Structures are given as C-alpha cells and as structure tokens.
Amino acid sequence: MVFFVGEYRVTFSGQGRIIIPKKIREALGTSKTFTLTKGFDGCLSGFRNTDWEKAANELISQSSLEEQKSETKRHLFSSAAIIEIDNQGRFVIPKVLLDYASLKNNATIIGVGDHFEVWESNKWNEYIKKIKP
C-alpha cells in the first residue's frame, strides 16, 4: 500500500475546485473517487473508499450508548461525501465542507499515512506553530 505523504500548497481554480497533488493521486490509486469528510481540528479528511468503508464499519460496530462515540459518528458521517476526480486531477469540495474548513482561495493538503487532510493554509500554519516543540 502506498502511504499519503507530503505537504502541498494548492489554489482553487473555481468555486471549491482544487487539483489533487500528484503524490496524493498516486496514493489514491486508480480509483476516480474518494471519500471526503470533516476532520478534526477544523480540516477535512480524505480516504480511499476501501479504507473509509473499513474505518466506518469499525466505528459503526462500536456502541452508540457512549456519548463520545455517538459524537464522533455524527461528526464523520453527517458530512461524508463520495468525491469524483476529473480527468485533470481536480475535484470539487461540497459547500458544507468548504464552510466547515473555512476554505476560500487556497489550501494546504498534507499526507497523514492512511489518509490525507485539506487545511485552510493559515490554519495549518498556526497548527504547526502550536505543535512544534
């Protein structure tokens, strides 16, 4: 399996439309779709569909009686969308996800091993400053 790695600055080429960096596209494999949902810390998380299904099944199998598990399910499933990649390697982020992540003109896409994240660039810069030792 190819891991999602790297940090890439991208600019929107239309309303909510950005290009997927080559290394991220390679990690997605041959599929022309992927799953995008709300991440944590105000970013978006993108998954190979097979990885999303596996993680979703694990999450569903957990008890909904625990408040934290229910909140996580609501957070992830309420906004999950299957996203299509066009022939130029671009995709459109749904408005609800654009608003959640405060995305407007540019973004930073980072690889996180088993998935990738889409951050508003200033938020990403602030996050990096906060976690640096």
From TrEMBL:
The keyword Transcription regulation applies. CDD domains: MraZ_C, MraZ_N. The keyword Cytoplasm applies. Keywords: Cytoplasm, DNA-binding, Repeat, Transcription, Transcription regulation. It holds the Pfam family MraZ. One of its GO terms (biological process) is negative regulation of DNA-templated transcription initiation. It is found in: Cytoplasm, Nucleoid. Residues 7-51, 80-123 form the SpoVT-AbrB domain. InterPro entries: MraZ, MraZ_C, MraZ_dom, MraZ_N, MraZ_sf, SpoVT-AbrB_dom, SpoVT-AbrB_sf. PROSITE patterns: SPOVT_ABRB (PS51740). GO terms for molecular function: DNA-binding transcription factor activity; transcription cis-regulatory region binding. Its main location: cytoplasm. GO terms for cellular component: cytoplasm; nucleoid. Belongs to the MraZ family. Forms oligomers. This is Transcriptional regulator MraZ.
